[in-house]
Amino acid sequence: MLRCRPLLLLAVSSRRHVMDLASVVSRLDALAPPALAESWDNVGLLVEPTPPHQVRKMLLTNDLTEDVLEEALGAGADLVLSYHPPVFKALKRLTCAHWKERLVVRALEKRLAVYSPHTACDALANGVNDWLGRALGSCVSVPLRTCSSPSHPSGYGHILEFGGDVPESMLSRVSALQGTCVRTYPLRNEDGARVRLSCSHNALLQALAILSEDPEVYKNAELLTLQKPPLLDTGMGRLCTLSEPVSIAAAVKSVKIHVGLNHLRLALGRGKTLGSSVRVMAVCAGSGSSVLSGVPADLYLTGEMSHHEVLDAVADGRSVILCEHSNSERGYLRELGAQITQCLEGKVEVVVSQTDRDPLLVV
Ligand SMILES: [Zn+2]
Q1: What's the domain range around 138?
Q2: DSSP state letters, 141-196
Q3: Is 362 inside any structural domain?
Q4: 12 CA → ligand 1 middle, Å
């Protein structure tokens, strides 16, 4: 009996640190819903070894370079979460001639899965932009561009109202659409009986086809397309209003500490000095110009902007801090790692890459 106990403990312990890839992916998708990502992006599971694939260890990285891939294999990882999708443009062949193709070939040979959340995490409440927005301390933060709910959760995205002298047979045929995502509500007002349908797009087309058989009924029908309200704490970029204004010099110091860098690039807004005050800061992790352009703020904080985009901001009196693309995102991986550990109930070991770094250095 005594001899069996260590073996039993070992079996329990090894079971605790493993999870099927499909379960891991569905939980990662729930944490950062792919529907929040930009339409041009390529997020979710990108490389899948033949199932079943068990995940014991996950490596988080900003970019999956060949150095990071070797680190993942050396560390015995079964899954790499790469913030940026290493497979973005369509691959027409998988040879060893190009580094992106080699990544996929090596990953599949070594049974290493690859997942990318990218702009889903950009948009997320408590995602990368909220992390970057805390660079100057406590603030009230709102997204610069809000996201809508991905779809009407019930599937009933349209309201069709009609009434008047509706033939009984027509009413019963519309009611018979119930099974195809239609709810009917009898209404009564000064015009007499009216019927309101809450329905899906497909059911709407079928209902309209039935109503069109009576030109008078069809002409008096009214249609409303429902929209979900925006998700107030979810979206691209953040506008951060500080509780206490700080000088630009103090902002530079705080950002260096927050992102862990000794050097940044700073452009002072027209007429501004290092002593000028910052109360409102607009942030966008990564490449910020499309989100930040024209936003009224004392300071823009992002990874990269082009020369001409910086000139535009400066001319409007806005100062700009650039810390290079991935440096504006990498520090968030520690927070993401903690969130993932929690959502996987500690069943998968989550580690952050040591070799991942921005290719650019300010020297
Ligand atoms: Zn990025």
Answers
A1: 125-148+233-322
A2: EEEEEEEEPSS-TTS--EEEEEESS--HHHHHHHHGGGGGTEEEEEEEETTEEEEE
A3: no
A4: 39
Residues 61 and 210 in one domain: no
Q: What is the DSSP letter of 214?
A: S
pLDDT computed for residue 69 by the predictor: 98
How far apart are the CA of 119 and the centre of ligand 1, in A?
8
| Segment 90-113 mean pLDDT | 97
Structure token pair of residue 164: 């008047």
Within a domain: residue 102?
Answer: yes
- Rounded to the nearest angstrom, the distance between the alpha carbon of 91 and the centre of ligand 1 is 21
Domain tally, the chain:
3
11 pLDDT band, cuts 50/70/90, is very low
Query: What mean pLDDT comes out for the span 176-198?
Result: 66
Query: Which of 84-98, 197-211, 343-357 has the lowest average pLDDT?
Result: 197-211
90 in the same domain as 23? yes
Of 160, 162, 152, the C-alpha closest to 223 is 160
Whether residues 254 and 129 fall in one domain: yes
* Residues 79 and 184 placed together within one structural domain of the fold: no
Ligand 1: centre distance to CA 140 (Å): 24
Distance 149 CA to ligand 1 centre (A): 23
Q: Give the domain CATH number at 294.
A: 3.40.1390.30
pLDDT in tens, 44-67: 999 999 999 999 999 999 999 999
Q: What is the mean pLDDT of residues 101-118?
A: 98
Q: Of 186, 206, 225, which closes a domain? A: 225
Query: pLDDT tier at 9 (50, 70, 90 boundaries)?
Result: very low
Find all residues with CB under 8 Å of 45, minimum gap 6, and list them: 21, 25, 113, 114, 115
